[in-house]
Amino acid sequence: MSAWEQQRVEWLDPRLWDRLERLESRHQRIQFEHEEARRGLERLSSRGSDELPQVWRRYCEAIAELDRTAAEFQALRSGAE
């Protein structure tokens, strides 16, 4: 890490690091949920099922949550610069 990067890291508010850690954990959890929903869609689409609307809704919710966490990451990055 360069001297500038080290100064920048020390300069950042500890609350920023806490927020980043929580956001990363949330994002990872949502990525896992998205992957599970995608697999569920693949299973259902291969055999057909009345559960498809429910599984599709969960998939769409996971995508929306991933979009929200991506926007929060961007806002966090913009605020830190």
Could you state the oligomeric state of the chains shown? single chain
Q: Name the shape in a single word.
A: rod-shaped
In total, the number of strands is 0
β content, as a range? under 5%
Structural class: mainly alpha
Low-confidence stretches are none
Topology order in helix (H) and strand (E) letters? HHH
Distance between the termini: 17 Å
**Helix content estimate:** over 70%
How many domains?
Answer: 1
Instruction: Provide the residue-averaged pLDDT.
Output: 80
Rg from Cα: 18 Å
Largest sheet: number of strands, sense, barrel closure = none
The number of helical runs is 3
Describe the structure using short key phrases.
3 helices, 0% strand, mainly alpha, rod-shaped, 81 residues, single chain
Write the layout of secondary structure elements.
Layout: H1 3-11, H2 14-47, H3 52-80
Helix pairs in contact: 2-3
Question: What does this protein structure show overall?
Answer:
The protein is mainly α. The chain has one domain. Helix content is 89%, strand content 0%. The protein contains three helices and no strands. It has helices at 3-11, 14-47, 52-80. The longest helix has 34 residues, at 14-47. The chain is rod-shaped and about 55 Å long.
